[in-house]
Structures are given as structure tokens and as C-alpha cells.
């Protein structure tokens, strides 16, 4: 043993691991690089137990939200969110939820993930645009139905994957400006379901359902289900609770106010909610258009569907389950994934958005909503949009031309290769017909000379084609400076 090794201190032989605290995670400074990949832009509001920051990659091309959370016994909500996001991505439903583009564990206790930021406003921002001067919200039947279609579709996906949404916050929902589709941008309140169907899938669901907090997460009980008011923290959010929550939301948006909005007594709120569901009122004060009658009927049908579903749920609780589905006729009979007919409910609201016309006959995603307003453009704005559209068309033409050129080159090479092989075979056939000896050095040399000539002709033809392509490229329109006043325009506005 060397003298240098003997003189080392004891702690030098140990690996020191830094333990991050909540104070460390809440004090990350802007313009710093996290994990050598993400640049901190600014701090965002805390989501659940996770500290959030707006970040971008080092190439300034990808923007997202960074979630940081320390795990107790390696258990965090980030792990379940990453698992859920990957599950929806593998099933082809990533457009309905936010996408996780990076995740890892640091020092075996700090969990982080980065969710991609998609362009578009939040539902909270859109609803603010249609609030009246007295801060009262009044949503039209078509707009409420448009939003309900996407919410119901997402609730269906959550139920089919064994998850529930434990709160409704308009900040968590965003509108994708490209597809005009609402999606769940923040999956913090998504948690595994404690339903009997999913508790029997595997041991993990059983443990989570018994130990994790699966109740309503918000302190505001305006949209909270009745079961939460009755059971409190012991409440387990269910599929039917989500449907009940949706009824409260749509009624509040269209009528402008729920009966128990100003109630401060939970018992009084509970009684009012029960009476509300039992004797469902009209969601609109005035029926000004035909679609208002259709919307009222659709919402009444939704409330009646909830009543029937609760009765059926109580009966199915005594039946067998298999693979996340009910088996009302025994464990070996056909399975029932859900007692709620989501597709029928979505079709009711789609008819309202389409104003009774068939879905295939109208682009119902492009329908005018309450917050869509026509604004007269200034000459500078019109000029900028025309140049931008022209630039986009030029880029599409260039991309299509490059794709077609690549296809042409590919088939040209294949054709030339086939010709070359056929000519080689023809030389061999002529040698055989002449009765020449294939092992004769003179014959071999003659064949190689002929093949070399063919190869030289082929290379000369390819070079000529390359020269022709370069001449064509010189004649193409340069589109780099198509919008020369791009920066000046934004600085001027």
C-alpha cells in the first residue's frame, strides 16, 4: 500500500450525495442550465407537490414546463404522470394530453420531467374573453357543447385506462390552435382509479387505492361530487363522480350561476345538490335559438343517464370483474368496459354544434365560438399575412420538389443499375456463344475492359444529370428574404 493511499482521510473514500430540499427546488435562478439540457426561463406556480419552471432546450427550439419533486421512499406523483403519459402515447391518444419529452431521477430522490408546451390559450383565458362587465359568465349552447365534446372524450380515455380526474381547473385545459381541440395540459390531478374493476387488475392498483390520496383535490366544492361532501377525505373519485362534475360545469357556464354558489354551509350545499340532480332545472333562462332546446334536452338526458348509471353501478358492484371491465353475466361471459355510453353523449353534443346537420357535411371544428371575433386588419397586418402565406406556400413547394427529386433519383439509380447488370450479363452470354474459355486471361481482360467502359458511361451520365440539376437550382426563386420586415413589424406593434 502506497504512502499516499495510507494518508487519505476516511471521508475521501465515500461518495457524498447531495440531498435536495424544497427550498433548493423553489430557488432555481433564470438563465441557468438544468441537467445540462434545459435553460430556466422563469418560475411558474406550483402544481401539486411539484415546483414548476418554464424552460427551453439549449438550441432554443423546444419549450416546455419543468416539474421538480422530491420523493419520499421513491414515491412521487411525477412517476405516475410519466407512466400515464407514455401509456396514452403508445395508445395513440397523445393529442388529448400533454407530452412528456424528458424525465429522470437525480441522486435517487429528485424526480423531474419536462412537458412540451403546445401553442394555444388556456380555457381560463378564453372564458375571460366572454365575461360580462359584472363578471358574470354566460356561454352559448354551441360553445358549451363544443367544449363538452372534448371533455367527455378525455374522461372516456381516463376511464378506459383505469384513471380518474380529481378536479376541474380551467387553467389545466388548453386549446390547440392548429386542431382547435381542447386537451388536458396539466395531468397533476390525474390518479389511478379505486374502482373494483381496476383494483383487481394487479397488486399495484390495490396498494395505490389504499394508500394514495384519491379524493377531490380542490378546496372549492362548487363542482365537487356529492360523495366528497359526504365522505370527506375518505372519498374516492369515481367515473360517475366525473360525470356529475361535468353536469355542474355545463350548467354553471350556460345558466351563469349554480344555486349553491354563495352557500357557506356544507350540509345546505349537500341538500341543494341532491335536489338539483333529482329535479334537474332548465340550463338556460331563455331559449332564443333552436339549438338551445337541443342543449337543454341533451343536459337533461345526461342527468337522467347519471341516475340510471348509479343504479346499475350498485348492482354491478356485486358482480365479477375481469381486466378492468364488468362481467354482468359471469366471469366467462362478455365484458362491459363502462356503464356510461360516452359515444351517445358525444353524438348529442355534436348535433348541437353542427346545428342538426350530419357530422361529415360540415367542418364542425371550424365553427365560430363565443370568443371568436372578426377584427379588421390594418394594411401592414394584411401585407404581413400575405407575405407569410406566400412564404409558407413556397416552403411547401420546395419541400415537395425535394421529395419528388429524391424519388426520381432513387428510381433513376435503380434503372441504371438494372441496365448495367443486363449489359454485363449480355457480355457473358456473347462470350459463352462464341465458345470462349472463361479461364483464358485474354478473355477475362476483354470482359473487364467492356465492363469498365460501361461503368464509365454510367458515371458520365450521372455527372451530366448533376450538372443539369445545378443549373435548375440556380433558376429557383430565393425565398429567404420573402419577409424582410418581420422584426420591424413586431417592434412597430
UniProtKB/TrEMBL annotation:
It comes from the Eukaryota. GO terms for cellular component: autosome. InterPro entries: Kinase-like_dom_sf (IPR011009). GO terms for biological process: positive regulation of piRNA transcription. This is Protein kinase domain-containing protein. The lineage of its organism: Eukaryota, Metazoa, Ecdysozoa, Nematoda, Chromadorea.
Amino acid at each position: 500500500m502506497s504512502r499516499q493511499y495510507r494518508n487519505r482521510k476516511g471521508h475521501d473514500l465515500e461518495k457524498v450525495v447531495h440531498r435536495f430540499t424544497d427550498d433548493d427546488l423553489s430557488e432555481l435562478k433564470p438563465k441557468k442550465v438544468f441537467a445540462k439540457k434545459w435553460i430556466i426561463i422563469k418560475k411558474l406556480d406550483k402544481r401539486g407537490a411539484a415546483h414548476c419552471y418554464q424552460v427551453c432546450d439549449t438550441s432554443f427550439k423546444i419549450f416546455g414546463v419543468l416539474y421538480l419533486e422530491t420523493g419520499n421512499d421513491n414515491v412521487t406523483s411525477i412517476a405516475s404522470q410519466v407512466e400515464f403519459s407514455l401509456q396514452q402515447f403508445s395508445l395513440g391518444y397523445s393529442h388529448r394530453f400533454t407530452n412528456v419529452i424528458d424525465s429522470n431521477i437525480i441522486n435517487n430522490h429528485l424526480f423531474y420531467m419536462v412537458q412540451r408546451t403546445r401553442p394555444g390559450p388556456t380555457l381560463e383565458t378564453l372564458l375571460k374573453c366572454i365575461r360580462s362587465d359584472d363578471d358574470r359568465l354566460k356561454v352559448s349552447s354551441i360553445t358549451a357543447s363544443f367544449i363538452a365534446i372534448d371533455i367527455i372524450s378525455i374522461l372516456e380515455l381516463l376511464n378506459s385506462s383505469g384513471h380518474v380526474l380529481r378536479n376541474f381547473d380551467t387553467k389545466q385545459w388548453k386549446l390547440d390552435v392548429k386542431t382547435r381541440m381542447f386537451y388536458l395540459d396539466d395531468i397533476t390531478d390525474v390518479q389511478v382509479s379505486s374502482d373494483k374493476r381496476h383494483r383487481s387488475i394487479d397488486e399495484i392498483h390495490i396498494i395505490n387505492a389504499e394508500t394514495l390520496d384519491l379524493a377531490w383535490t380542490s378546496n372549492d366544492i362548487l363542482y365537487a361530487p356529492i360523495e366528497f361532501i359526504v365522505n370527506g377525505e375518505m372519498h374516492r373519485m369515481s367515473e360517475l363522480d366525473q360525470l356529475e362534475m361535468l353536469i355542474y360545469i355545463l350548467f354553471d357556464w350556460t345558466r351563469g350561476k349554480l344555486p349553491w354558489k354563495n352557500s357557506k354551509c356544507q350540509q345546505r350545499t349537500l341538500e341543494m345538490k341532491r335536489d338539483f340532480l333529482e329535479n334537474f332545472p332548465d340550463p338556460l333562462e331563455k331559449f332564443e335559438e333552436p339549438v338551445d332546446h337541443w342543449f337543454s334536452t341533451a343536459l337533461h338526458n345526461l342527468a337522467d343517464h347519471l341516475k340510471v348509471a348509479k343504479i346499475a353501478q350498485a348492482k354491478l358492484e356485486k358482480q365479477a370483474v375481469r381486466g378492468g371491465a364488468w362481467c354482468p353475466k359471469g366471469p366467462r361471459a362478455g365484458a362491459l368496459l363502462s356503464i356510461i355510453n360516452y359515444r351517445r353523449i358525444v353524438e348529442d353534443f355534436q348535433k348541437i354544434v353542427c346545428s342538426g346537420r350530419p357530422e361529415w357535411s360540415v367542418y364542425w371544428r371550424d365553427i365560430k365560438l363565443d370568443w371568436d371575433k372578426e377584427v379588421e386588419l390594418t394594411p401592414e397586418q394584411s401585407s404581413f399575412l400575405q407575405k407569410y402565406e406566400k412564404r409558407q406556400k413556397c416552403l411547401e413547394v420546395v419541400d415537395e420538389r425535394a421529395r419528388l427529386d429524391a424519388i426520381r433519383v432513387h428510381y433513376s439509380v435503380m434503372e441504371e443499375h438494372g441496365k448495367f447488370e443486363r449489359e454485363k450479363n449480355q457480355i457473358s452470354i456473347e462470350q459463352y456463344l462464341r465458345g470462349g474459355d472463361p479461364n483464358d486471361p485474354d478473355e477475362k481482360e476483354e470482359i473487364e475492359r467492356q465492363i469498365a467502359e460501361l461503368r464509365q458511361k454510367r458515371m458520365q451520365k450521372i455527372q451530366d444529370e448533376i450538372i443539369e440539376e445545378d443549373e435548375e437550382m440556380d433558376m429557383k426563386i430565393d425565398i429567404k428574404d420573402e419577409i424582410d420586415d418581420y422584426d420591424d413589424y413586431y417592434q412597430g406593434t
